[in-house]
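Sample pair:
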Amino acid sequence: MFKREVSPEVRRLQNLLGEGDHVGFLESFSGGRWLHLAADRDFLRALAGEGLCILLKEKDPSRRLMQRYGDLLLAGLVHAPVETVCDLANRLRSSRLLEVAARLRSKELRSPHSTTKPIEHPDSDQFAPLVPIFQVRRIVQSTFMVPGRMDASDLLSARKSIFRSQQERSFLQALSLRFPGLMALPNYPLDQVADINRLKHQLDDEAWLYVKRCRPAAILVIPDEGDPIAAFDLGQDEIELAATRRFEQMQKCIFQAIGLPLFRFRAESPDSITTDEWYAILTDEVLPKLDTGFRLRKRSVIYGFVPV
């Protein structure tokens, strides 16, 4: 391997820096006569950057020495990490050094192998750091997942599945597959798709109490707009044990007042029906009766028209 020979002058600068003599190092370095040698130019810039890093790690670095390093940075004679340049700029309250840090960070971000980290700034009780804005990123979604058993959400915490039964799970899957252009919402509160306060005078006390906590097994809505198209009821076990006839009468009255079609399904063995079977039922019983009417629209487009 080829090893470049270090000149005596460069060796002297290394020794001064190793002894912690920043004054002597800067006196010898500030002339810049070594930088005219192409072989030593990059090495000396990196050496000066190392000296700056050593100085900033001291407990109480000299402001005069930091200022001299800053002048060399502005002259392009020092090569140092972005974090070090930004730290020096904050200590000296120098906007020009912040511009240098911004340019360095911009080069790193453009590099395909960039592994830059966020800059750590001094405590705010010392002084308010001048931090340049290098890049703005929009976080769409951040997911954190840890290994666990399948029953962890049911037994080890207060969390539980949005599906109240296996029947609801398979039904919603079939509903999403049968109507891919619509959005299927499981166990969605009825008061989120209807103004139930307008129904109070049409319902008796028992029906009014029910409508405020009514959650159909699924609701089909228009994507983006959220307009409801139809509701589905599968008949939960606890409901079957109650007065079924009275319950169905309340449902009929409520959904007729809302004007929302309700499809009610009852199965002798709910958990035995597969997704494919639900898909076939939806094709035969729901698809011919489903009518979106004039709800398929884009509000952002319609509201954009200006009457002439």
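Residues 118-128 have pLDDT under 50 and may be disordered.
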